[in-house]
Amino acid sequence: MASGEQVVQIDDRRLRITNLDKVVYPETGTTKGEVIAYYSQIAPLMLPHLRGRPVTRKRWVDGVGTADAPGGSFFTKQLERGAPDWIRRMPIEHSDGPKDYPLADDVASLVWFAQIAALELHVPQWRFTPSGGRGMPDRLVLDLDPGPDVGLTQCAEVARIARVILGGMGLEPMPVTSGSKGIHLYARLPTADDGTGLQSSDDVSAVAKELARLIEADHPDLATHVMAKSQRGGRVFIDWSQNSASKTTIAPYSLRGRAHPWVAAPRTWDELDDPALRHLDLHEVLERMRSGVDPLAALAPPSTALTSYLAKRDAEKTPEPMPRTAYAGSGDAPRFVIQEHHASRLHYDLRIERDGVLVSWAVPKGVPETADRNHLAVMTEPHPLEYLDFEGEIPAGEYGAGSMTVWDTGTVSLEKWRDEEVIGTFTGQPGGRLGTARLALIRTGGEGEKSQWLLHRMKDADAQPSPGRRSPRRTGRPSPPEQENSADATAVPPFIPPMLSESGTPGLARSLSEPAWAEIKWDGIRAIGTWQRDGDGIGRFTLRARSGTDITARYPELTADGAPHLPAAEAVVDGEIVAFDHDGRPSFALLQNRMHLTKGREIEREVVRTPISYMLFDLLRLDGHDLTGMPLRQRRELLEQLAADLDAPVQVPPVFDDLEAALDASREFGLEGVVAKDPDSRYRPGRRSSSWLKLKRTHAQEVVVVGIRPGQGARRDGIGSLLLAVPSPEADGGLRYVGRVGTGFTDRMLRDLRAQLEPLRVQTAPLQVPSPDASDALWVRPELVGEVEFANWSPGGILRHSRWRGLRPDKSPDEVRVED
């Protein structure tokens, strides 16, 4: 075991923890060990507010830094690779398929979060249903966010006003000082038997918004419900939007990643009357717990997963097991049982472990023996885990009267678990009746108990489940683009290839319009962003490169919490992903650290090291309307309205109405150049247009890599230089040699180049190359595109003084054009 590591036993979990002496909060000297101790001790009060909810984490792997120099952080939603297998998880659909999100149902999970520097834990206002679906919200939240020159006492004043209104609605709010700036108000909502709310997230959001609007109307100098930051000066912003199904709020009792270890601390109303009201740190919150103070206890939802089961049974009259724990799971692969039930009619009960209960179906004819036959299955109430091995006689007159025996039992490897579809490979006991079978359950009608399903045995491991008939009701999760859950689902917009610019001169640019329209050329990579939100307010943001390649997973800060949540059902935007250096200048070389990564762990690490921004400059679709035929100036107005409340890393940079000023700014700040545009121009997907002219401050040329010259000295075992070409219809093989480049490489670039070029090696040159450069060359297929800076062209068409800038994976060789 490495130095500084130790394995701890928490209940029945074993967990390796490291670096307990590492300082996480430099200003207070608070260590990682103290953070872990806090979460271990606060768990009894905190877990009830987390249980059953997907946990989004905000991580500070290098500590929070100081007030003057904050440390880097990043959000993660999907469960980290390498997480212990006992971490409970539930899938949520994304554009590229379902992703597992962690749940926090025990102390060990909280300790593991602390071990990976997940200081802040954020959760939505809804919980998963026992069947794995997204439930209705069970609580309402208002985030009272102080604007400039506003403190906690003014937030408390707004909280008291909101309390009167909510109390009149039968909702008693409970305050939490957020540990960051303001105050959160929570109110518990009425729930159904399954523990979920009775109103949708959109309904609750509408109520919260109206409440905020009423407070603003009565107290315009004190509060505002408008999201625009320009409206918040001297007032408290009542953020009602966190009731959206796709939004999360810092969980009560969570630490904050501020300079001090403040906590999102539940408070009493008497405390809010104190003019010296302030935030509490972890030590103060633990002391309150030891004193028996838990102002938020009434908000904790009761465990209702087994309410229906218990209501149908009398423990004094039936031998069926009664649950000992509410959400206790095995922590291993999910278990299943198939029971043969001789009730009024013989049938079989299929039960699968999920979220601490056994989700159950009655299957009159049992598991199909072949793939050409589907059997009816009817969902029943969830059963306790103790039912996994139950056999016995249920007395006459009791619910389910008759004998029950275990037909087979084992474990299941789940592939999908959605409201309308469950797929998994079931492995029974050695020598048992089931053997190994890949089964699909497909909902055909109804919801919850008594909903009707088809049970299908799949032909082999590569087979796909029969789609059956899908319920017309939309579930709480967005579906992948290739699926349609309902007739009213918003269709996924087709990919719109970006409009391209021509090379130009300032003289040509001045002729486009008067006054001029100029935008900074950001020296990044082009990305088309697609936003979609379903009827329940669940949104997703996907990114595609100019080639159409899905690059969403490479930039989690643009798709996780804090990333764009657009106030629209659907939108398609055009922009540039940019990395900035320490001087605040766009750096294409720095962006190389991000654009080629595909492994989750590498991406997470680089998010902190190389942050990026998404600079938006065009809007192509909005709420089902194609805007490409609209003049640019109108598209821009809509874009600015749409993105008015977005924060970094998504920005809408300003437009210059003075071309000379734009060029001067580009020179002053060392930028690549500007793009002059005709404000009356339409958007022409996938086409170059003289309505957009790029004016580069430096010479840059896209090139095709055709060969490698071996290195010498320190590079003797690697790449010395690259041989370059550009497309030319007149040249042999369609390529013309333009020279070589041997400078501008970082060690990482060289490693990436070597890995990508090695599989492209060929024996013969793909074009004619002068003998001096071809003498010891290693040839590659001309498939990789890069970019170089250069001084000028020689009379013979060779790049002079070229310097490597990086690969262009967003471009193909046939897209390369010779720049003047």
UniProtKB/TrEMBL annotation:
<dbReference type="InterPro" id="IPR012310">
    <property type="entry name" value="DNA_ligase_ATP-dep_cent"/>
</dbReference>
<feature type="region of interest" description="Disordered">
    <location>
        <begin position="458"/>
        <end position="493"/>
    </location>
</feature>
<dbReference type="InterPro" id="IPR033649">
    <property type="entry name" value="MtLigD_Pol-like"/>
</dbReference>
<keyword id="KW-0067">ATP-binding</keyword>
<keyword id="KW-0239">DNA-directed DNA polymerase</keyword>
<keyword id="KW-0548">Nucleotidyltransferase</keyword>
<dbReference type="InterPro" id="IPR014146">
    <property type="entry name" value="LigD_ligase_dom"/>
</dbReference>
<dbReference type="Pfam" id="PF13298">
    <property type="entry name" value="LigD_N"/>
</dbReference>
<feature type="domain" description="ATP-dependent DNA ligase family profile">
    <location>
        <begin position="605"/>
        <end position="728"/>
    </location>
</feature>
<dbReference type="InterPro" id="IPR012309">
    <property type="entry name" value="DNA_ligase_ATP-dep_C"/>
</dbReference>
<dbReference type="Pfam" id="PF21686">
    <property type="entry name" value="LigD_Prim-Pol"/>
</dbReference>
<keyword id="KW-0464">Manganese</keyword>
<keyword id="KW-0238">DNA-binding</keyword>
<dbReference type="InterPro" id="IPR012340">
    <property type="entry name" value="NA-bd_OB-fold"/>
</dbReference>
<keyword id="KW-0227">DNA damage</keyword>
<dbReference type="Pfam" id="PF01068">
    <property type="entry name" value="DNA_ligase_A_M"/>
</dbReference>
<comment type="similarity">
    <text>In the C-terminal section; belongs to the ATP-dependent DNA ligase family.</text>
</comment>
<keyword id="KW-0547">Nucleotide-binding</keyword>
<keyword id="KW-0511">Multifunctional enzyme</keyword>
<dbReference type="InterPro" id="IPR014144">
    <property type="entry name" value="LigD_PE_domain"/>
</dbReference>
<dbReference type="GO" id="GO:0003910">
    <property type="term" value="F:DNA ligase (ATP) activity"/>
</dbReference>
<dbReference type="InterPro" id="IPR014145">
    <property type="entry name" value="LigD_pol_dom"/>
</dbReference>
<protein>
    <recommendedName>
        <fullName>DNA ligase (ATP)</fullName>
        <ecNumber>6.5.1.1</ecNumber>
    </recommendedName>
</protein>
<keyword id="KW-0233">DNA recombination</keyword>
<keyword id="KW-0234">DNA repair</keyword>
<keyword id="KW-0269">Exonuclease</keyword>
<dbReference type="Pfam" id="PF04679">
    <property type="entry name" value="DNA_ligase_A_C"/>
</dbReference>
<keyword id="KW-0808">Transferase</keyword>
<keyword id="KW-0479">Metal-binding</keyword>
<keyword id="KW-0436">Ligase</keyword>
<keyword id="KW-0378">Hydrolase</keyword>
<keyword id="KW-0540">Nuclease</keyword>
<dbReference type="InterPro" id="IPR052171">
    <property type="entry name" value="NHEJ_LigD"/>
</dbReference>
<comment type="similarity">
    <text>In the N-terminal section; belongs to the LigD polymerase family.</text>
</comment>
